[in-house]
Please model this.
Amino acid sequence: MNIYQEDLLDHYENPSNYGTLPNPDISHEEDNPLCGDQIRIDLMVEDDKIKEVRFSGHGCTISLAAASMLTEKIKGKSLEEVKQLSKDDILDMVGIPLGPVRLKCALLALKVLKAGAYGIHAWPGEENE
Amino acid sequence: MHAAHFRPLDVESIRKDFPIFATEPPLAFLDNAASTQTPRPVVDAMDAYYDTYRSNIHRGIYRISEEATEQYERAREKVAQLINAPRTRQVIFTRNTTESINLIAYSWGTANIQEGDEIVLTVMEHHSNLVPWQLLAQRTGAVLRFLEITDEGLLDFTQLREVLTEKTKLVAMGHVSNVLGTINPIQSVIEAAHAVGAKVVVDAAQSVPHFHVDVQQLDCDFLAFSGHKMCGPTGIGVLYGKLEFLEEMPPFLGGGSMIRSVERDVSSYAELPAKFEAGTPSIAEAIGLGHAVDYITQANLAAIHVHEQELLKYAHQRLKEIEGITLYGPSAPHQKMGVISFNMEGIHPHDVAGVLDTHGVAIRAGHHCAQPLMKRLDVIATVRASFYLYNTIEDVDRLYDGLCRAQKLMTRRKQ
Ligand SMILES: Cc1ncc(COP(=O)(O)O)c(C=O)c1O
Model:
């Protein structure tokens, strides 16, 4: 399986929900110290649902494509549902096997989202370690 | 470094000593600045220890323990010869370069550095020759000062006179940059530092594996390097120091092996090198390092250097053919070692490395443990290829092909 398959490259080249929100209810930014990738996520929340989402930043194909996919997935979902998203959900979305370093790239957006929305700062999948 | 008498490397027969290259097509391993491959004779020497004389050293009154002690100490002699240390006991075994530098910072640093003293570093340093000095400065109130680099990636030598003053107590500098490959004029820096009474620590992690480093000629006060970057195993590193300093310095870690006698409240310490080798050391790894020293000296360090320079020149030439590539570091090969850092326009270094990986080419992408240097170069990360004695022109061609493929794949619709 090619790590650079069409689907990922499409998200990378034409990301969904790229940008920032003027008055976000939640805005959070973090970087991955391993490679300097940086992602910010802005959310507008209404009735405990994610009404609007934007992401911005810079990074490799995998981190940006995963962020783009994640924003598509969470739009309209309740905060409770989004809180349940796990490392495996991201891996399913990305759909290719990843080594430990690239795994962090794929998980960065979810980490930013969870830190901003729920104050959970651990890497997804390492919450109990 | 241009020795007149040597046989050119027989790369083909060298490669036969490395089972990892036996696949077809062979792995193009171009991440040697991070860690090198291990040849069969080194693994065999470690296996022989485990299979035939596995025991602790410096204690057992039985044959195999004596043999282990002998082999461990033999390795120290080989290392001492490699760097031309005046006395074998000036070679201390540690885990790696990082531990060696931390040992100096804790032991020598805490005893000799005071508030207001200045420690001079460069912006090129690997984090392992930076963070220990930050910690020391925080403990003591010392001040860190940095030598800058030119846009070419060379040490800004003109600044040296200004920065070195009677306040300077220590200069800690990489001999060769692990990112740019720049060979620093370490000898001149040492002379200038000694002229103001400062001591010098040389981070030789990227030099000792690749050319002949002579501690007496350099007149450095301390020197550190790692076994795993010179065909040796992981878990073994070296600290060299001038005898007078090592003898004066307080111990770093306390415990078994480093003592002479122990009372309830106080102890007296063993002679060098045991004073700095508390606890059971990495015995197999030290023996492996001794054989790695044999391996690279038999191949001949001067020949290794020439071979790497050829690969470097060829790689420079090929990479420049690719549009949108930015190379970092000196452009003249004689100013640098076999390390090339670069970026491809519009492609994240991780993606370059990812595509190359699918092409059987192992290179590094990231900040290479040199974040202040990344900032100075105004990049987030770079792609880095680095060579060693077993690399070939074909490896460079595979790198080139992989980069072209990455470019096609990643910038297809943007063109
Ligand atoms: C210049 C330099 N200094 C220090 C180190 C640290 O070496 P180690 O990780 O073996 O302690 C490295 C290698 O990573 C290096 O390239």
About this structure: The radius of gyration of chain A is 14 Å.
